[in-house]
Amino acid sequence: MEVQNKKWDMKKFSEMRQEVLNQWPTGKEVDFEEAVRYHQNLPKNQIMTNKLREAATKNNTLIQPRAGVALLDEHIELLKFLRQKGKADVLPTTIDSYTRQNRYEEAEKGIKESEKAGRSLLNGFPAVNYGVKKCRKVIESVDCPVQVRHGTPDARLLAEITLAGGFTDFEGGGISYNVPYAKKISIEQSIYYWQYVDRLVGIYEENGISLNREPFGPLTGTLVPPCISHSIGIIEGLLAAEQGVRNITLGYGQCGNLIQDVAAVETLKELSAEYLKDYDVMLTTAFHQWMGGFPQDEAQAFGVISWGAATAALSKATKVIVKTPHEAFGVPTKEANAEGLRATRQVINMLKDQRMISSQELEKEKEIIKRETRQILSKVYELGEGDWAKGAVRAFEAGVLDVPFAPSQFNAGKILPARDNSGAVRFLNFGSIPFDDKIKEFHRRKLAERAKAENREVSFQMVIDDIYAIGQGMLVGRMDSKIA
Ligand code: 8ZB
């Protein structure tokens, strides 16, 4: 198989569909025509694209938690709680790890054991096992749009069931839900699986049902330079649009330096509009509060959460994905989850009418991110001989696309990021990223400034120190100044 960025024809899609729907008994509940009618009757306020369009028009930033538990009633109660006590604008359903790996037998056991124990023993909601009707129970219990959030290289059946089940937004992509999540699945394979998901969404669109797709911006979540996540997000956006997707939210994970982060969200908007100009798509943005290691202390965690909220508001991201004070420990209680939302809401409200002053520094940072992203994407396009899917596969082989700290054996893993003296994420190792000398020189100079300030050499130790810094109460990993 060589994957191509070309819209699938109905024959190819329908043949695969039979196979997909047979993967688990609940696949039989999917009746596409009936699902279209179900969506036609959904209240307007439960359609994600409506909420996103309204927020984008008014320059508002929506707040969204992550949440998912094993038992249906408990999951419904959780979502209602986050809406009522956390004032979430839009809700998620986070899928458990077994389902993400297509291990539905084990998910089934997880449900049974959770029922026995009377509490969730899975780390998310096993939507495939529950099937279409039970997904609709979730949707009908709340009064806002609900998105599927997961981490699944092969999400074909999950998409069939949840979209037929009334979810109006589906996270992920062929690169962003493979490279950070899987070791052994080729990029080609996961792009192919995700073309199916995108084509499915495209077919809903062709039937008048507006759905949203959101590539997973943060990737590994730790010190990912903006140009890397921008390049991958834009490629996934292009692949989705080719299959008929009309509404795309591109994501970015907070790095921690305000100017770099605002520059990142602004350039994500500008670059994606530029690269997707030939497609009729609505583009919006999702800002993820810090995705790396968190402090254990809840008060410190609220500091991190609030700084993410401030950055989201100042960058005018369409949506912010909210962390909780339990982040360092795992799946949060619903109370902690609502607290993260309320802290975020407070800051967003206080900043919504303020703007970042356009400064030379901000403009310079934007220019750098744009040049870097364009240089990467040009090379991807060249390697693919004009085909973004082929280009993506070959770019990973060549290390032209390279995600730091990713488990995938199809990722070169040669680049190394480190913070500069103001905490912006720079490149310590370029691997095979195709930057020109001017950009390489810029990164070297920025890291040299930090080295001088800390009176040490630029080295791998900085990378390690930076990985742990926020969890230890800092942004830049200067080993002399931990507070925790
Ligand atoms: C890649 C996403 C990781 C983030 C959170 C983690 C982390 C995962 C759940 C969840 C609430 C869940 N996360 N699963 N949050 N409920 N079932 O996603 O804590 O922040």
From TrEMBL:
Record flagged with keyword Isomerase: yes
Binding site for L-glutamate: 66, 100, 149-150, 171, 177, 181
Residues that hold adenosylcob(III)alamin according to the record: 68, 123, 180, 294, 323, 327
Residues in the signal sequence: none
Catalytic activity reported: (2S,3S)-3-methyl-L-aspartate = L-glutamate
Enzyme nomenclature, EC number: 5.4.99.1
Enzyme's top EC category: isomerase
Subunit text: Heterotetramer composed of 2 epsilon subunits (GlmE) and 2 sigma subunits (GlmS). GlmE exists as a homodimer and GlmS as a monomer.
Family: Belongs to the methylaspartate mutase GlmE subunit family.
Chain's role: Catalyzes the carbon skeleton rearrangement of L-glutamate to L-threo-3-methylaspartate ((2S,3S)-3-methylaspartate).
This protein's name: Glutamate mutase epsilon subunit
Gene source species: Tepidanaerobacter acetatoxydans (strain DSM 21804 / JCM 16047 / Re1)
Gene encoding the protein: glmE
